[in-house]
Amino acid sequence: MSPQATHEDYQAALELVPTDWRRIPLRHLFDRVKILGFVDETMLSVYRDQGVIAKDEARNPNKSAEDRSIYQLVDQGWLVVNRMKAWQGSVGISSLRGIVSGHYICFRPIHGEDSRFLNWLLRSGPFIGHFGSISRGVRPGQIEIDNDQLESTLLPLPPLEQQRRIADFLDDQVTRIEAAIASRTSQMDHLTDSLR
């Protein structure tokens, strides 16, 4: 994700969409919901670098509220948006079932699209720039996304099989990069140990 992405990048990306791709408003793919009372579910959170993950997997100094009844249920394929940090990339499609902060915006899917593709799309630089352009507030660090404009956001969608191929390719590239980083880290650790 590029922190320098702007609304213009989003507009430019939409203009490059092939003619056989659909442009569907987010509200036609997801229903906004707020389901409370599932206090025994796994705590989840949405992070700008990782998307939606189990909270205990992240190094997060923020404490969860003791009253878990205020947390919202999400399930696989649901869209989770941190309303105050969407402009930084704190948006994602969950691959897990659990509960998230009551301050997030949660959307249940009503579509048959590929969730992995949607996750890549919504977390891409042009979309993060767009989320910044539709967020308002007193100070840059404390701005909140406009719900109506979020739900009106157009999503460019290729045919389903193409969505799957794109998501497969991106998942594979990330796996390769992570393996290369792990290998390099291991080599550096061995080198450091041998120099001691």
Summarize, please.
The protein is of the alpha+beta class and 196 residues long. The chain has helices spanning 7-15, 115-122, 125-133, 147-152, 160-195; strands at 22-25, 30-33, 44-47, 51-54, 72-74, 79-82, 91-93, 98-100, 104-109, 135-139, 142-145, 154-157.
What does this structure look like?
With 196 residues, this protein is of the alpha+beta class. The protein is 35% helix and 24% strand. The strands form five sheets. A four-stranded antiparallel beta sheet has the order 2-9-6-7. α1 (7-15) packs across α3 (125-133) and α2 (115-122) packs across α5. The longest helix has 36 residues, at 160-195. It is globular and about 60 Å long. The model has no long low-confidence stretch (mean pLDDT 89).
Task: Tell me the strand percentage band.
Answer: 15-25%
Residue runs with pLDDT of under 50 for 5 or more positions: none
**What distance lies between the first and last C-alpha atoms, to the nearest angstrom?**
38 Å
Q: How would you classify the helix and strand content by structural class?
A: alpha+beta
List the helices and strands and how they pair.
Blueprint: H1 7-15, E1 22-25, E2 30-33, E3 44-47, E4 51-54, E5 72-74, E6 79-82, E7 91-93, E8 98-100, E9 104-109, H2 115-122, H3 125-133, E10 135-139, E11 142-145, H4 147-152, E12 154-157, H5 160-195
Antiparallel strand pairs: 1-12, 2-9, 3-4, 5-8, 6-7, 6-9, 10-11
Helix pairs in contact: 1-3, 2-5
What tags apply to this protein structure?
5 helices, 4-stranded antiparallel sheet, alpha+beta, 196 residues, single chain, two-stranded antiparallel ribbon, 12 strands
